[in-house]
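Replying to the earlier thread about multi-chain prediction with a worked example.

Input:
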Amino acid sequence: MPELPEVEVVRRGVEAHVVGRRVDDVEVYGARVTRRYPPGPMDLAARMRGATVVDARRRGKYLWLVLPDDLALVVHLGMSGQLLVERHDAMAESHLRARFTFADGDPELRFVDQRTFGGILLADVGPDGIPLPIAHIARDLLDPDLDQPAVVKRIHERSSAVKRVLLDQQVVSGIGNIYADEALWRAGIHGERLASALTKPSISRLLDHTREVMTAALEQGGTSFDSLYVNVNGASGYFERSLEVYGQQGRPCSRCGTLIRREAFMNRSSFSCPRCQPRPRRLAR
DNA sequence: CTTTTCTCCTGTATGC
DNA sequence: TGCATACAGGAGAAAA
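Result:
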């Protein structure tokens, strides 16, 4: 599942293969992929024709292509979205949702999404450089302008499970289920501990661990695109072998040997070490 | 206002 | 073998 490191790998691929090129046409397949863009696919295509891609940017799990006139094509990969750079005559994927062709010919850019939890939309960019529809998304842990003490304070003020807060993109963005579990294991904190019951230094260390695990994943995922394929399989690809807890139930913890457990949380799964990350006595949900 | 639950989607794995 | 069910989970709407 694409979280910050995977989306950053995609952004770099788009930056390398698409920035500086002029859009020739856009074809959208099905209505769902543009559901967050009420004017619809015809309008989106019309506004993009002839526009030169100026930049490829990212915040959290969102990425966007900067277009002239303070316009941006915002892309979210959702659960299963991919941006692929391919020859025009390459066979259409069964879940091809949008195709962007360029005035200089091959390659083209495709948005492919099996479950269509992801989507694309056009939006104006605000004075801060962020597309208006995602202005509510908080800075992520790789953002040099992130005010970490302020984030620590916000987390400390929340009366909810700390993992739930980590996953809240309006507090700090880019963290999904995989890296939340990995970071909590590194920090030795059970995700159901009450955020407000943690000390501020321990919350700050947890954020440091999160940043470190994402950086490590990015370094491994960053090697996997070199041709025309913009990889979004970081979670199931190179970094998978480095996962300490996510999906590792029944295997020994690399620190203490206790078997990793799997628990239900927020209608999902959480993975942790029973010894390194003891459950709190009073549950925070 | 804050916090939690529900919903969207489809390929894959599992159970009877 | 076949059918039903569970599961993966990001994000926003809706509910509490």
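The CA atoms of residues 62 and 76 of chain A lie 5 Å apart.

Feel free to reuse this layout for your own posts.
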